Structure formats: structure tokens, C-alpha cells
Amino acid sequence: MISLLYAMDRNRLIGKNNQLPWHLPQDLAYFKRVTMGHTIVMGRKTFDSIGKPLPGRENIIITRDKHFTSNGCKIIHSIDELLELSRNKMDEEIFVIGGAEIFKEILPYSDRLYVTNIYHEFEGDTYFPSIDENEWKMISKEPGIKDDKNPYDFDFVVYEKIIK
């Protein structure tokens, strides 16, 4: 199963200068809780923004650079390799965590979306691609708790692809 995990604002914004345009500790804790013990897949720029492999997870980086290496990470070079990996891990949920280009390419093959909706508008340069809402069914929605450290209204929503 291939799942996408991302946070976005009202305008589908997901990034600014290869960083998150907001700081929501609850979202970071949610990300850790959902992905811990699983395989996470990210583009090289997303990996660069994180700066290191995330502990407790198998880290896979997709890059066109055939010479790229990173200790503690597996390197693949195409969406086809990711799909093959998914077929080899049929009983596992694989989380794609960014960036926008990889989200766009893998979205048609994805089974589940984990979305943190942030009800605020930010400035940035990277957006999540539009989805056909008729292809997805909401299976859970959990409100985030707005407080001093999490200053925006937000919620955690999970969608599953509707098999047609």
C-alpha cells in the first residue's frame, strides 16, 4: 500500500524554500506516530531539508542522480522502482512524504492520503497537486488542538481511494 502524508494550507501550499511555511509541533508528532516503524520515501530535496535519515523508519530517497548516496538510506531512481518496491512489500504501508513532484507522479498509484489541513493561508512556492475528490473517501477526521505552540486551526484527515 502506498500512502501520501503531507500538510497543506487552504490553498494547497506545502512548502516555501524547501521548508515548511509553518511550525505545528502536533503535526510533527502526528507524522512521527503514523510513520514510525514504516518505510518512508522522499525526494532528494525533501531529504536535504530534513538533513538526516529519520530514526525508526526505513528511509528511501528518490533521485535522478545516479551517483547520490547517503548513509542510512536506500536510494532509488524512479517511480517505477517505487512501484516495484511496493509490490515486494505487499503487506506493508509505504509513506511518501514529499516533495511536490513525487506526490504528483505517485498520486495515481496511491491508496491512502494522510492530510493535515491547516486552516490558514501562508506564503510559499510549492503546492500539493489537485485531486479528484470523487476518487477518495474520507475514513477519519481528528481535530488538532490550537494552543500557544500550535497557533492555527487544523485537523488530521485520512482518505482511502475508492476502487472503481
Written description of the protein model:
The chain is an alpha/beta fold and 164 residues long. Helices cover 21% and strands 32% of the residues. The protein is built from 4 helices and 10 strands, in the order E-E-H-E-H-E-E-H-E-H-E-E-E-E. Helix 2 (44-50) links the parallel strand 3 (39-43) and strand 4 (58-62). The longest helix has 11 residues, at 25-35.
Topology record:
Elements: E1 2-8, E2 13-15, H1 25-35, E3 39-43, H2 44-50, E4 58-62, E5 73-76, H3 79-88, E6 94-96, H4 100-106, E7 112-118, E8 126-127, E9 136-143, E10 154-161
Parallel strand pairs: 1-6, 1-7, 3-4, 3-6, 4-5
Antiparallel strand pairs: 2-8, 7-10, 9-10
Question: Keywords, please?
Answer:
two-stranded antiparallel ribbon, 8-stranded mixed sheet, Dihydrofolate Reductase, subunit A, alpha/beta, 10 strands
CATH class descriptor = Alpha Beta
CATH topology: Dihydrofolate Reductase, subunit A
Structural class: alpha/beta
Overall tally of structural domains: 1
What average pLDDT do the residues reach?
A: 96
- Percent of residues in β-strands: 25-35%
Overall geometry comes to: globular
The total count of helices amounts to: 4
Strand order of the largest sheet: 5-4-3-6-1-7-10-9
N→C terminal distance? 17 Å
- According to CATH, the homologous superfamily is Dihydrofolate Reductase, subunit A
Question: Could you provide a short overview of the structure?
Answer:
The protein is an alpha/beta fold and 164 residues long.
